[in-house]
Amino acid sequence: MDDGGIGRSYWLKMVGIVVGLGALGLLGFAIFDRLAYRFGIVGAFLVSFGILMAIAYRHDRKKQREYAEDDG
Question: Could you tell me the pTM of the whole model?
Answer without folding.
Answer: 0.62
